[in-house]
Specification:
Rossmann fold, alpha/beta, 7-stranded parallel sheet, binds 7,8-dihydrobiopterin, 6-stranded parallel sheet
Length: 354
């Protein structure tokens, strides 16, 4: 298939502003290319993706939807990069069989039936605003096989969603992640440092257990981190910076456990399979995608959401988990190859569903 990738309009690929979507897009570009498909990428100017020529599109970046209130209407800025991306894909659409949209935005979904090429959407987050819920649910009902999501928990967050929506999971390039069998490292936290990722709870656990906490990720909300540190002054916390997935794969293995304390419903939780691939067991709140990935008692523990006591207790028991089991679970369920094949099947079904 000849596939156009329409990237997220919140920031250039490689900047980290796109969060998990940047990794997902990279995994699928490489995975689908390996399956013999041709990929062309359209993304905001300044985007970088090793091995791919990216159509650099100018324009005003879209405000991230997770910053909006639930009742907020859809907004689009003057000279929007989102409009410019889709205008260019519209003009070049006869070069493609499929347009795979990675943006969590209304415009691409409203265009689904108006292209000669087949437009489909990989939804990257759970329910955030009533306006976007409406667009996503309507698109899932009106266009067969047009929507895919990463986890059941994510799909369940959209009431009225068509049961036809594909659940495709996610995947990581295993070679990027170095297994490490050592069990006595620091606690790890990976993700955009922000309120929705719940970094404050991870700092609280560092204080309760007396274990050092290492944080990797874009320092999106430094005030939030500073407030957490002053609330838990005895916690030993170090921000290790924002790293690429390849760099993360070399350092994450040093951790005793990864803490996943998301306050929102994570669509999937790529950081969970990245940690498991390095042999690091995961302790997660029973909320969203991460709770579907962690096999309680085998690759880590899941605890009652926001329950710091249970999370600290799970940290104390984490030595029971065999780190080799963590890596094996990812190898058999979340490789980039198996993820790319699931998405390939979805795209082929979408093409057949015209
Ligand atoms: N917000 N409007 C909008 N569009 C996106 O594509 C988008 C977003 N917020 C966050 C985001 N994408 C990604 O960081 C997450 O999907 C991972």
């Amino acid at each position: 298939m000849r596939i156009a990738f329409a990237s997220t309009p919140v920031g250039p690929l490689g900047s980290g502003v796109g969060g998990g979507v940047e990794l997902t897009l990279e995994i699928l570009a490489n995975g689908l290319k390996k399956l013999g498909h041709s990929i062309e990428i359209f993304a905001p100017s300044g985007s970088v993706l090793a091995g791919f020529a990216v159509n650099q599109i100018d324009g005003t970046l879209q405000t991230p939807t997770q910053d909006a209130d639930r009742g907020e209407p859809i907004s689009i800025a003057k000279g929007s990069v989102l409009e410019n991306i889709w205008d260019k894909i519209w003009r070049e659409q006869d070069k493609f069989d499929v347009v795979l949209n990675f943006a969590y935005d209304a415009l691409p979904m409203r265009l689904t039936g108006l292209f000669r090429a087949r437009v489909v959407h990989l939804v990257s987050m759970a329910s955030l605003t009533d306006a976007m819920d409406g667009v996503i649910v309507e698109t899932s009902i009106r266009y067969k096989a047009a929507i895919a999501m990463h986890s059941r928990a994510q799909a369940e967050s959209f009431s009225g969603l068509s049961p036809d929506v594909r659940i495709v999971g996610s995947g990581v390039a295993l070679d990027n992640y170095q297994f490490n069998g050592s069990v006595d490292g620091a606690l790890g936290f990976v993700g955009r440092v922000s309120a929705e990722k719940g970094v404050e709870d991870a700092v609280a656990i560092a204080e309760r257990t007396g274990l050092p906490l290492k944080i990797w990720g874009l320092l999106q909300d430094n005030d939030h981190l500073q407030r957490a540190k002053s609330r838990y002054p005895r916690a030993s916390v170090s921000h290790e910076g924002f790293v690429t997935s390849a760099q993360l794969g070399r350092v994450l293995g040093q951790c005793r456990a990864l803490l996943v304390t998301s306050k929102w419903v994570e669509a999937f939780g790529n950081v969970v399979i990245e940690a498991l691939a390095c042999g690091v067991p995961v302790i997660a709140y029973r909320r969203g995608g991460p709770a579907e990935i962690v096999v309680d008692g085998q690759t880590g523990f899941t605890v009652e959401p926001d329950n710091l006591t249970q999370m600290a207790e799970a940290v104390r028991r984490i030595g029971r988990i065999k780190r080799a089991d963590c890596r094996a679970h990812v190898t058999s369920n979340y490789s980039s190859e198996s993820f790319a094949r699931k998405v390939e099947n979805w795209l082929l079904e979408a093409l057949a569903a015209i």
